[in-house]
Amino acid sequence: MTEWLNAMNDPFAELQNYQQAALAAIQNADSEATIEAVRIEFLGQKKGRLKNLQALFGKLDKEQKPLFGKQFNEIKTLVSQRLEEKQAALSSPVTALEAIDITLPGVAVSPGKRHPLTQTIEEFKDIVGRFGFSVVEGPEIEDEWHNFNALNIPESHPARDPLENFYLAAAEVSSGGPVLLRSQTSTVQIRIMEQTEPPIRIVSVGRVYRPDTIDATHSCMFHQMEGLMIDTNVTMAQLKTVLSMFARAYLGDGVEVRFRPSFFPFTEPSVEVDMLWDGNWLEIGGAGMVDPAVLEAVGYDPEQVTGFAFGLGIERFCMKRHEINDIRRFYENDIRFLRQF
Ligand code: PHE
């Protein structure tokens, strides 16, 4: 407190205070009007802070006067000079065009890219679109009817084990029946057939969920593309043709497709589909002729219509094409990984 009072009474400290305040005010002035107000406050001839400082002169001891006078003049000159510079700058502002140095080198800004899986999905849709399949959507939270019953998966089937599925306990209470995150996109087949009369030719792409142990080739969430074709005389030969054409369109003419006998409750006969690529057989999904029990479940007459269905793993294709060795890369979203695609 006393130090501050002393400073107030010390004429040399007053000089310093004046200089600091004046220079700060000049720097902050942002218009011709404000710089004029600063000029009047700090350099005004009749009154103002400079006059107050001059008045201190009379209170000084004789021997202090020369030093005070010298400092006073220096500070006045400095403040006047800065003020004039600022006045000049504010009265002739540079135009936006002058402010840009067009000779400076440009900096490229990356516009960003779509996720590699999104790119793969877009390409898949494009290919099957050329075969006449239209794209439909289905919900990721499903009831047991669409995920199991209608797909001919009975109550006792191990695929319904709660340990093999993500059942949603809270949602069950509010909806009145068990619901789960869909474990396959085959659910969409049922939803479409329930709403549509044949003929049908659709694909549906989306996420599916299984509580698998996560490793380089397994994730508890991944993507499938489901295909369904229903008409009066759909055959296994057509299924094979469509999948072979799809494989060639995505991977090139040299690719070979192999069908291995398998079992799915909703197709009969059922096959597993492999592709020969770079000398290795790669399992890409399941397929088969739609089981008559499924056609009946959605109200179709199995005597009138037949159909095929397939389910392909999207990550598999993308990993193979880009030599990605770990499925977890897709979901970590490390920008260094994503930038490569
Ligand atoms: N839904 C099966 C799976 O997820 C794949 C499949 C789809 C099989 C359609 C046959 C017909 O493994």
Shape: elongated
The H/E string reads HHHHHHHEEHEHEHEEHEEEHEHHH
> Which hetero compounds are present in the coordinates?
phenylalanine
What is the arithmetic mean of pLDDT?
Answer: 90
SS class: alpha+beta
Q: How would you describe the overall organization of this protein?
A:
The protein has helices at residues 2-9, 11-28, 32-43, 49-56, 65-91, 96-99, 116-130, 144-147, 169-175, 186-195, 236-251, 292-297, 314-322, 329-332, 335-338, and strands at 134-135, 141-143, 166-167, 179-181, 200-209, 221-231, 256-264, 267-277, 280-290, 306-313. With 341 residues, it is of the alpha+beta class. A seven-stranded mixed β-sheet has the order 1-5-6-10-9-8-7, sandwiched between helices. It has a three-stranded antiparallel β-sheet with strand order 2-4-3. Helix 2 (11-28) packs antiparallel against helix 3 (32-43), helix 2 (11-28) packs parallel to helix 5 (65-91) and helix 7 crosses helix 13 (314-322). The radius of gyration is 40 Å and the shape is elongated.
Question: Which keywords apply here?
Answer:
single chain, 341 residues, alpha+beta, 7-stranded mixed beta sheet, 3-stranded antiparallel beta sheet, 10 strands, elongated, binds phenylalanine
